[in-house]
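ok, trying the design again with the full structure, not the truncated one.
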């Protein structure tokens, strides 16, 4: 118990959280890379089962299915992390969060291929949000909850940037986790949390259908509804106007910048999930101060 008491000291806890968050950030890189592929495999397997049910002329229904490469285990734990270029498994000594990328100068130790800078960025983000949550909330359930929320938002933002998809495997557990944490009013009372989940979903659902009725196009995906519902479950309905406002402002600024400086066409979709995630993290840590100073109506 003395050890845990020492770790909970205000000058020690953030550093412990930083180290732990860096390790979680390394795992988030695995989630970001593999989860969309796992879902794609699952969808393909379901389609194959439906196709097998229909059958083809000459098929033997009693014959076992042909084994393919996709039958090999592929999940968040297996196979081991490897270089995507040469396929060499990465040893533990070269998989130390942040440090290994710096020592290897961002390149594979065997083939010399470049390792994306996003890997250390995600690791660093995971560590920084954990350290800040520990410093802000201290050794409390709120600190751990803030870490869980921020780590989930980091993974969702990166996956949405890569695939324009916000997986239910993260958004739905995140929503229920928010309600669970607020059973004891960790961030808000349970009533506002439940209303926040409902209002968060309906707010963007309404925008989606209004835009579709007017333009005949889809302006966003259903994953955005679920993400805002999850944020509402964590922070309560009072924070939703601020989250929507912040995400819209950031999204508009980034979207205009992409069109002006990167030649991003208007017809090319821009994922909204990263802006919602950033706004959710801002509202988590500074939402009360921002609302109290700039949005007294929602304070």
């Amino acid at each position: 118990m003395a050890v845990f008491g020492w770790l909970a000291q205000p000058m020690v806890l953030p550093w412990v959280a930083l180290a732990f968050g860096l390790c979680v950030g390394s795992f988030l890189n695995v989630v970001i890379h593999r989860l969309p592929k796992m879902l794609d495999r699952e969808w393909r397997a379901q389609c194959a089962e439906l196709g097998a049910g229909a059958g083809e002329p000459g098929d033997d229904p009693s014959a076992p299915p042909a084994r393919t490469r996709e039958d090999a285990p592929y999940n968040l734990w297996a196979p081991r992390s490897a270089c995507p270029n040469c396929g060499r498994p990465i040893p533990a000594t070269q998989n130390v969060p942040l440090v290994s990328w710096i020592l290897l100068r961002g390149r594979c130790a065997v083939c010399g291929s470049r390792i994306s800078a996003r890997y250390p960025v995600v690791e660093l983000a995971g560590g920084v949000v954990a350290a800040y949550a520990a410093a802000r909330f201290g050794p409390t359930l709120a600190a751990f909850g803030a870490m869980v929320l921020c780590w989930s938002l980091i993974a969702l933002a990166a996956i949405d940037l890569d695939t324009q998809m916000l997986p239910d495997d993260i958004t739905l557990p995140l929503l229920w986790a928010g309600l669970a944490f607020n059973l004891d009013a960790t961030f808000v009372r349970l009533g506002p949390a439940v209303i926040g989940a409902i209002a968060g979903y309906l707010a963007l659902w309404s925008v989606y259908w209004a835009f579709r009725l007017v333009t005949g196009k889809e302006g966003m995906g259903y994953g955005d509804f679920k993400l805002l519902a999850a944020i509402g479950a964590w922070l309560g309905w009072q924070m939703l106007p601020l989250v929507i406002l912040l995400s819209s402002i950031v999204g508009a600024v980034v979207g205009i910048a992409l069109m002006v400086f990167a030649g991003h066409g208007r017809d090319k979709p821009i994922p909204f999930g990263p802006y919602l995630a950033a706004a959710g993290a801002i509202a988590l840590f500074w939402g009360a101060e921002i609302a109290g100073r700039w949005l007294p109506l929602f304070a």
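Keeping the full-length input from now on. The mean pLDDT is 84.
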